[in-house]
Specification:
Gln_synt_N_sf, 20% strand, mainly beta, glutamine synthetase activity, 0% helix, three-stranded antiparallel beta sheet, Ubiquitin-like (UB roll), Gln_synth/guanido_kin_cat_dom
Length: 132
């Protein structure tokens, strides 16, 4: 989940051990609490926050493990927390988002198109290019 730090939230995580007969569905995953005062999402005197599962994926690093993506909710488990910008995204019909996938091609241990000795000039034609 994303914490409440500004201007840039940090990615947070918790680990829970559960056994399922098969890959779990969202309905099988419980709500889970955390101390929001440690993540800039609550005051110390009333620090309960809730993690609501919204997506589940196979964990490539752990055999039979899953990664559960969560939203932060208020203690009632239904009201989105103020830091939870994702929960209201469908309310904005004009909202768009995209992914940027970075990858590199290598030849002889160097990025494709790099000089055989040294490095290319700072920035330049290779920025967002394909190495030529």
């Amino acid at each position: 989940w994303l914490d409440g730090y500004t201007p840039t939230p940090n990615l947070r995580g918790k680990t829970q051990i559960k056994e399922f007969a098969s890959f779990p569905t969202l309905e099988q995953l419980p709500l889970w609490g955390f101390d929001g005062s440690s993540t800039q999402q609550a005051e110390g005197h009333s620090s309960d926050c809730v993690l609501k599962p919204v997506a589940v994926f196979p964990d490539g690093a752990r055999a039979n493990g899953v990664l559960v993506m969560c939203e932060v909710m208020m203690p009632d488990g239904k009201t989105p927390h103020a830091s939870n910008k994702r929960a209201t995204i469908l309310d904005d019909a004009g909202a768009w988002f995209g992914f940027e996938q970075e990858y590199f091609f290598y030849k002889d241990g160097r990025p494709l198109g790099f000089p055989t000795s040294g490095y290319p000039a700072p920035q330049g034609p290779y920025y967002t290019g394909v190495g030529f």
